[in-house]
Each structure stands twice: as structure tokens, then as C-alpha cells.
Specification:
By secondary structure, the chain is mainly α. It is built from eight helices and two strands; from the N terminus they run H-E-E-H-H-H-H-H-H-H.
Length: 211
């Protein structure tokens, strides 16, 4: 894959993570009220949080989330292809890790929104909340997707730090893992998508300068 294509796909991935962050907002906010998963334990807070949530908003969150993560997947595949030029083994492992992340995180995104849709559709009753909570608990295993993302980030860090890619070692900071660590103490929502979008726009800039 030529470097021009890699850079374009990084921009697409940047946009994908921005859109995915927006869909997280759509899933969590309605009429200025923010939903937190901690609210699941409190029927009154759940009822308040979703009393004005349009079903179409949750449906759009699922659909756009899936599309945006496909867009992001193109960027991970492109960076893995670029890494293969320096180490076929590291590049392949990075690709497998990234696809593990993308496939499962797409499922996780949909499986988080789906029980909320049924909760709203079933008039936010205690029985609907119990069913939605059970569904979420049974499908939360999909969140192991983040293992793939962490592995991808570590591979990228190692390759840059070892000097294999030709990028300066300070480029290690343009990685969603250290960026997320910096964002973790803040109250910003969608921290993961913010960190990943920063990584891809940073890689676009670095590749434009050094490659």
C-alpha cells in the first residue's frame, strides 16, 4: 500500500472515531440528561434519563456506530500495512489485533444500545430494565475488544521506539494508549474515541512530514 493511500485512510479513521464518539453521545444524552451505566442500578434515575429518548436516536446511534467503526478499521489496516514494510511479523500481528478490536467493538457498541432501545420501547418499566440489564450483562464479554486495541498500540509503540519506522521516537506520544492515560482523569466523554482520533490525525501529520 502506497504512503498516499495510508495517509488518506488515516484521515478516514480519524473521521470514523469522531463520528463514533458522537454516536456515544447520542446513546447517552437526551434533553440535556446524561445517562451513566451506574444508573442501571436505580430505576428512578433510568426512567428520568430515558423519559425523552427518541427510539430513532438509539437506532441511528447503532447504525452510524457500525459505519464509523468500519471507517476506523480502514485506518488500522492501513497502518498495519505500512508497518509490514518494516517488519512483516509485527505488521501482521498488528493487523490481527486491530481486526479483533474492530469486529468485537462494533458488536459491543450495538449490544450496548440495543438493550436501551428495548427499555425505551417497553415503556421503561422495572421489568424492561431487568431484561435490559440481563441482556447487557450476558453480552458485555464483547468488551474484550480492547485487548486487541491495546496490543495494536503496544506494537506501534515498540516499532517506533525501536527506530524501525524512521519516525522520531517522540512520535510514540501519538498513540491512543498514552493519550488515553492522560485523558482518563478528566470528565470528558468518549475518551477512547478522542484518544484514537488524536492518534490517527497525528499519524497523518507524521507520515506527511517524514514519509
Amino acid at each position: 500500500m502506497d504512503i498516499g493511500t495510508v495517509k488518506v485512510l488515516c484521515l478516514i479513521a480519524f473521521a470514523g472515531h469522531i463520528i463514533c464518539g458522537i454516536t456515544d453521545f447520542m446513546m447517552s444524552y437526551s434533553k440535556g440528561r446524561r445517562f451513566s451505566f451506574a444508573d442501571i442500578k436505580d430505576p428512578a434515575r433510568m426512567d428520568e434519563a430515558f423519559s425523552h429518548m427518541p427510539l430513532k436516536q438509539l437506532e441511528l446511534s447503532m447504525l452510524l456506530g457500525a459505519v464509523s467503526l468500519f471507517m476506523a478499521g480502514l485506518g488500522y489496516a492501513a497502518i498495519s500495512s505500512w508497518a509490514c514494510e518494516y517488519s512483516s511479523v509485527w505488521g501482521l500481528v498488528g493487523f490481527i489485533s486491530a481486526m479483533f478490536f474492530i469486529v468485537l467493538i462494533t458488536a459491543h457498541h450495538i449490544l450496548c444500545a440495543a438493550p436501551l432501545w428495548f427499555y425505551v420501547k417497553l415503556q421503561r418499566t422495572d421489568e424492561a430494565l431487568e431484561a435490559a440489564t440481563e441482556f447487557f450483562n450476558r453480552t458485555v464479554i464483547a468488551s474484550i475488544a480492547y485487548i486487541g486495541l491495546i496490543a495494536f498500540d503496544i506494537i506501534l509503540l515498540v516499532m517506533i521506539a525501536s527506530g524501525k519506522t524512521g519516525l522520531p521516537k517522540i512520535s510514540c506520544l501519538v498513540n491512543s494508549l498514552p493519550v488515553f492515560v492522560l485523558l482518563a482523569p478528566t470528565k470528558l466523554p468518549a475518551k477512547g474515541n478522542i484518544a484514537n482520533s488524536i492518534m490517527f490525525i497525528g499519524l497523518f501529520i507524521l507520515l506527511s512530514i517524514y514519509c
